[in-house]
Amino acid sequence: MQKGRSSANGAGVRGKKGLSRSFFLALCLTAAAATAQPQSSENTLNRRDATAWLNKIHRAAQRENYVGTLIYQRGSVMHASRIQHYSDLTNNEYERLETLDGKPREVLRQNDVVHSLIPEAKLVVVEKQEAKDRFPALLATNKGDVLDLYDMRKLAAERVAGVECEVFALEPHDTARYAVRLWADRNSGLLMRAQTLGEGGKVLEQVAFSQVDIGVPSDKQRILSAIKGAGSWNRYEVTYQPANIADEGWTIHTPLKGFQKIREVRRPLGELRAPAQGNKPGAVFEVLQIVYSDGLTGLSVFIEPVSEQRARREGVASLGATQVVVRRVNDFWVTVVGEVPAATVKQFAAGVEYRPPKVH
């Protein structure tokens, strides 16, 4: 599931490998270590009940106050993070995410403004970023469109991190997307665990709370103070410009049902580092990003000009549920990244065409 993409590695860090459903951009958030347990009782929910539960899960991630430890597992890679999330009466959100292994990293969020702290460089990366695709939120589930593409079944209840959970399976109508399993707190609806399943029910990726406290008092002031405290650090602001790929000669044929284009932007691409002497910015590349979603999962298409400074080559890669295809189209590199089956990513990559726009 495109969960837990964060921004310290995002917006261009190390060539912006863009691996994660924002969809990539990610300090490692999360994860779970339990494997799927056989379920005894199950039944398909009607559309009204299924929509109600998806909306409840989605709202809980935004409205509840919670503090906990997240474990994120993708393939053989596992990371742990500490998360604090608070919401006020006017639905403002405040969030702090700290990595617990590897190099120290911290992500501070106030609504859609994200500050990613890289302590060893005294660098803070600031960008606007939607949080709907980061665990424990669900991507675009405030609409029932996802139920045109998946059947939602209720499975036997289980406990996760000491919390009594309702368990749901979302099974796709076709092979263009993965099946998903969700564990939600019976009372608040907060998502406790999410799994992405491949063929034969194999767990490709999972995110879960290993410990959580729900309904805690707000400590948003500490997050605001931490944002202020990084004000003296070197600052890199990631800006996104609206784009129209058709005007630039690009066409993306998307024959797969359910994937809708939700965003087209031009964004910086390059290695983030402290400003050089004289505050002159280093070379910055730009990339077109086109984001698609089926309401539950998604993928991104990146288009960047061929450059001697950025060695690339055509090929495919896979890590857990994330699939990547790179191909050259004219004098551009096209990279498709998504937490969908390999065939889906390949179809999107094959559907990208370029015709130089006419000069008027």
UniProtKB/TrEMBL annotation:
Gene3D superfamilies: Lipoprotein localisation LolA/LolB/LppX (2.50.20.10), MucB/RseB, C-terminal domain (3.30.200.100)
GO molecular function terms attached to this record: antisigma factor binding
GO CC annotations on file: outer membrane-bounded periplasmic space
Coiled coil: none
One GO process term, biological-process aspect: regulation of polysaccharide biosynthetic process
Endpoints of the signal sequence: 1-36
Location, primary (coarse class): periplasm
Residues of the MucB/RseB N-terminal domain: 49-223
Pfam families assigned: MucB_RseB, MucB_RseB_C
Lineage summary: Bacteria, Pseudomonadati, Pseudomonadota, Betaproteobacteria, Burkholderiales
InterPro entries per record: MucB/RseB_C, MucB/RseB_C_sf, MucB/RseB_N, MucB_RseB
Keywords noted in UniProt: Periplasm, Signal
Protein name per the record: MucB/RseB-like sigma(E) regulatory protein
Domain MucB/RseB C-terminal: 246-353
Similarity comment: family membership: Belongs to the RseB family.
Subcellular location as annotated: Periplasm
